[in-house]
Amino acid sequence: MFAYITCSAMADQPSKRAERDAARDARVAAEQADASRAARLRRMQILGAVAGLVVAAIAVIAIATGGADSKKPPGDVAGVAATNTFLRGLQVNGDTLGDPKAPVTLVEYVDLQCPICKAYSQQVMPTIVDEYVRTGKVRLQTKVVSILGDDSTKAQRFASGVQQQNELPFFTHLFFENQGEENTGYVTDAFLRKIATAVPGLDVDKVFADQSGPAAAKVVQAADAVGINSTPTFKIGTSGGALRDINIDDGPQAIVDALNAATK
Amino acid sequence: MSAPLTSRTREADWLRWLASGLALLGICIAAYLTYVHYDDAQVLCTGGGGCEKVQKSEYSKLAGVPVALMGLLGYIAIFAASWIRSEAAALAAAGLAIGGAGFSYYLQYRSFVTLDAHCVWCMGSAAVMTVLALVTTIRALRYPT
Question: What ipTM, to 2 d.p.?
Answer without folding.
Answer: 0.76
